[in-house]
Here is the input.
Amino acid sequence: MALVTTKEMFEKSMKEHFAIGAFNVNNMELIQGIVEAASEENSPVILQASSSAIKYAGINYLMKMVEAAVESTDIPIAIHLDHGPDFETCKKCIDAGFTSVMFDGSKYDFEENIRLTKEVVDYAHAHGVVVEAELGKLAGIEDEVNVSANDAMFTDPDQAKEFVERTGCDSLAIAIGTSHGAYKFKGEAKLRFDILEKVKEKLPNTPIVLHGASTVIPELVEMCNKYGADIPGAKGVPDEMLHEAGLRGVSKINVDTDLRLAMTAQIRKTFAEDPSAFDPRKYLTPAREEIKKTVKHKIHDVFNSSNKA
Here is the structure.
């Protein structure tokens, strides 16, 4: 099967009330672990790369690895740009074969976000590529995204409707309380499902996206810390809330931090238990298996996308 856009998978997710995992990638082991998990669960999957991941791995390397993954399975796979900072980055990815791009204009005022998003939409649609946009600001730090808690703001449902109508974007990332990175909540985790409900009322046919939605799996944090890491107090979005978000109309849920934790936990464990290890295959193989295990859990137990391919 060739790479696909997210259009059909999102239409099915909205009709059948499940979410699709969008997993960040920047190397071979991540891609392999994610795609093997999705294949075994017979789930559609979105592989996504940020601009910093593209700088790290190179866009040609990433695309060739993704193409190899596509050749290994029959499940629908989309390749998506996560947090495209400008038109030039979005254009570069579209021209390289990405099937979906996100333009993140959330740092701009409402009118400027509309203007810049529409510029990306016009170019993408002319090339058969779909566009995700963002309205509202998520707190937290991840790659090149850095927003303080004081600057974060929830998405306004009325603005969301106007934004989608004026830009023509294909999906919309909204801010309802999630945040980027491993430190999402200081107190009790809470998502504004009331805002999600109002957005879905006004945009019943527009796929909604949640960024900053890693669970920050406690067992993985514990394993990292057990073998020498220093990640105190890390706290993410509980699985139950993410599952509820999918039932309430969220079509795409982004996962990055949990994959980083999975890979780091197993690499640290290998080095701690076998200080003589220096063959990358010896520590990247268990890391890849932990990524696969983590993704299977997300697909089967949280997103409910098993057997939806």
Observations:
- Confidence is low (pLDDT under 50) at residues 146-151.
- The radius of gyration is 18 Å.
- The chain is about 50% helix and 15% strand.
- The first strand starts at residue 20 and ends at 24.
